[in-house]
Amino acid sequence: MSGKSSAERFGEVVLPHLADAVAFARWLTGSREDAEDVVQEACLKAYAGIDTYAGGNARAWLLAIVRNVSYTWLAKNRPRALVVVGDLADLDEFAAGRETETADPEGPEAALIAKADTAALEAAIADLPHPFREVLVLRDINGLTYREIAAMLGVPLGTVMSRLSRARGLLMSELGSER
Fold first, then answer.
1. pLDDT in tens, 20-67
2. Neighbours of 15 (CB within 10 A)
3. CATH domain 6-82 topology
4. Which of 1, 141, 149, 158 has the most crowded Cβ, counting Cβ within 10 A?
C-alpha cells in the first residue's frame, strides 16, 4: 500500500466516522451503552481488517462492520422479543440543525412544538419494521447511496428502493394520522 502503519490507516479510515457508527449502532441496539459496546467491538474488527480495506467509501465499510457486529451482539445478549429501538437521542444533532432553521424566535412555545415534532418522528421511526427502519436510517440519516446500502445489506438495488419508499410512506401516514 502506501507504507502507512495499520494505526495510521485506521486513524484515516475509521476515526472520522465514529460518530456515525455510534448513531447507527444506537438505532440498531436501542441504547447508547449497548451501542458503545458494539462500536468498540466493531473498531477492533476494523483494526484487525484494516489491511483488507481496498478503498472506496470508508463510512459504508465501517457501518457494514457495525451492522454485522450489532446483529451478533444482539443475538448473544438479548432474546429476540426484546430487540427494540427505544433510545433515540442520537437524532438530537440531526434535529438540532432543523430546529435552528424552523424554530420561531418569538418564544419557548415554538421550541416546545419543534421538540414534540422531533419526538413524534423518533417514535415513528422506532415503530417501523426493522428492514424498513434500517434502510431509512442508512439513507436519510447516514446519507449512504442506494448502491452502498444494497452492497451492505446484500440485497438488490430495487429492494433498497422499495424498502425506502415503503418506510417513508409508513412514516408519512403515521405522522399524518397524529395531526
1. 999 889 888 888 899 999 999 999 999 999 988 888 889 989 999 999
2. 14
3. Rna Polymerase Sigma Factor; Chain: A (1.10.1740)
4. 149
User: Considering only CA atoms, which of 84, 83, 74, 91 is closest in space to residue 20?
Assistant: 91
Residue 132: pLDDT over 80: yes
Residue 129 CB-density burial (10 A; 0-12 exposed, 13-18 middle, 19+ buried): exposed
Residue 19 to residue 4: CA distance in whole angstroms: 24
Grid cell, residue 106, equals 418569538
| Rounded-to-integer distance, Cα 28 and Cα 102, Å | 29
Q: What is the DSSP letter of 78?
A: S
Cβ neighbors of 130 (< 8 A, separation 6 or more) are: none
Residue 95 has pLDDT above 90, yes or no: no
Q: Would you state the CATH architecture of domain 101-177?
A: Orthogonal Bundle (1.10)
- Tell me how far apart the alpha carbons of residues 29 and 151 are, in angstroms, rounded to a whole number: 22
pLDDT in tens, 100-118: 444 445 566 666 666 666 7
DSSP annotation of 138 reads I
- The 10 Å Cβ neighbour count of residue 160 is 24
Domain boundaries, the chain: 6-82, 101-177
Please check whether the two domains, 6-82 and 101-177, share a CATH topology. no
